[in-house]
Amino acid sequence: MRYEDFDSRYTPLVDAENKLVHFYQDEEGNTFYVEPGFYEGLMGFKEKRSEDFPAIMKSIDKVIKTNHKVIFTADFEFPWISREGYIYREILDITDPLGIFVEDKSRGSDYGD
After folding, report:
1. What's the distance, CA 43 to chain centroid?
2. Cα separation of 110 and 113, whole Å?
3. Of 22, 47, 61, 67, which residue has the fewest beta carbons closer than 10 angstroms?
4. What angle do helix axes 53-67 and 36-48 make, rounded to 10 degrees?
5. Contact 23, 31 (CB under 8 A)
6. Please, are residues 73 and 37 in contact by the beta-carbon 8 Å criterion?
């Protein structure tokens, strides 16, 4: 699966130890991973808050440039990969400071009552 929003902005790399998680490098040499769960969350924001998506991607770029080694994960307590010297960021770590929220209005089924 291609991650168009990253493949078009950054150089894709291959991590021989984990080929399931996308690995990238920016023009300054900073490296980062994008786990599938993070990307799925990001695509949810792109779908529901498309007007805010450029600001989200700009914030992701800032996190990369500030921290130099980042793993974008769905859950920092249970990441897919672990790399020494890397920090973890979840999608809400990016969107919450921007004031970009998606309200979860789903609720359980009434069936079975």
Report:
1. 9
2. 6
3. 47
4. 150
5. yes
6. yes
Which residue type does 33 have? Y
Exposure on the CB side of residue 13, measured as CA atoms within 13 A:
16
Give the other-Cβ count within 10 Å of 17's Cβ. Answer: 9
Per-residue pLDDT tens digits for 9-53: 999 999 999 989 999 999 999 999 999 999 999 999 999 999 999
Backbone angles phi, psi at 103, to 5 degrees: -80, 130
User: Whole-prediction pTM value?
Assistant: 0.89
* SS3 labels along 60-99: HHHHHHHHCEEEECCCCCCCCCCCCCCEEECHHHHHHHHC
CA-to-CA distance for 97 and 101, rounded, in angstroms? 10
The two three-digit tokens of residue 30, written as one number: 């900073």
Q: Which residue has the tokens 């498309």?
A: 50
